[in-house]
What does this fold into?
Amino acid sequence: MNRNNNDSANWERQALEHLLLENLKETRKARRWKAVFRVLTLLIFIGIVLAVFDFHLPGGSMSVERHTALVTLEGEIAAGSMANAMDINSSLDAAFENEHSAGVILQINSPGGSPVQAGMINDEIHRLRKLYPSKPFYVVVEDICASGGYYVAVAADQILVDKASLVGSIGVIMEGFGFTGLMDKLGVTRRMITAGSNKGMMDPFSKENPQQVVMMKNMIDEIHQQFIAVVKEGRGARLKDVPDLFSGRVWTGEQAVKIGLADGYGTVDSVARDVFKAPSVLDYTVKENFAERVAKRFGAEAGNAAGKALLKTPDLR
It folds into this structure.
């Protein structure tokens, strides 16, 4: 009887130990999977943060080897665009400052934009060229380098183009619409109260004021003369005496070379390889991250468009 009782007790103890052991195994397995999921979640979170905020520094890891520094100016030159003076100037500063950059190339593909932003970039290039007089600075034009884009380009040692590039457009434009005729047909009356006789100048819903038109024309003529002076200073004796050189006309790359708006033909690779003798090209352009693009799309761009519509700012394009 005692033996049977002992066997029964042993069996129960062994069964209990087995259950406890299996439970321990399951607990350990669950902990391992929990740890794996935590690591995966952390990695995914880090990936999302890197993708959204894009921790990008001009020049990447700042190469310690001799290289050609590249900065890209793409699209409309404006405070709210990728081609804004602050980012372009920051990129240029980093490119010039790196002692291992053999030369700096500004690659331009822009129809123009704000004369203020273009002027700020032009001024910064002149400052950097004085600060680093032995470091060559070339502009390489892709499809288009017009108006404000060309305003920037004339600060370079050399402007290189493709034969089919579009270059020039040395002029200023201010544009808008007039809706007074349509408003008369619809029976709509404009009500605008201002303090200052010219506060509502060029309002599209009011009749055109001849005196204000003259004022605006004088203003853009002044900006045009500033543009011409910058081009003459930058290009000097290379400019040919062409009657409509400053008329706002756009020229092909081939024509631009003939009349002195450009110096020759070339690409980023050819300049790096054949002129700077540093074929390794390092991009210093400040990149816009995803978060900035979203904010700009839903905020800054709307504000910029509204500002242009209301203030009628001049454009170099």
Observations:
- Residues 52-57, 292-300, 306-311 have pLDDT under 50 and may be disordered.
